[in-house]
Input
Amino acid sequence: MKAKAIEIEDKINELSVVLDKDIQHIQYCLSQLNELRSLVIKRDDTALSKLLDDIRAESESYRSCETRRRSIRKELAAILGYNLEQMTLSQLEKVLPEEKKAQITERRVKLRSLTSKLKREHLGTALLLSDCARFNSLLLKSVFDLGRTETVYYNSSGSAKRQTETAFVNLQF
Output
């Protein structure tokens, strides 16, 4: 019984380290989303390209943390006699002593808060990029529709003017 308790404590300590890395990763993602929005608005393609490379590199390095978390979860489920699907932080808190329970609870609450914030920031970034795509589409449509005869334009006084036989680019010199 004592060996089982020591094994559980070791796994909880490993899990705490992994959860701390998860918290750091989510905080990193939040800062990268802010930076991404900023660079999109500034239209800084060079910095944006570098940022996307940094995000890819961080994503690759974070995969080992995800693998380790899954492994610890599987091991804890086996030790405690739960199915893998039942092995959650909330379920784990029920069987832990008070000191370990407080550590896990603190990390769970922090992770829940950060993931909620990440979802909001992700949605905001997706909406920004969607609007940028829509504006670009409208801009391209207006540029390429400029030479069509059915297009109606309004001058500064508000009167309508139909575009007739006007090409966007004049190839004659």
Remarks:
- Helices lie at 2-42, 45-80, 89-95, 98-144.
- The radius of gyration is 27 Å.
- The chain is about 75% helix and 5% strand.
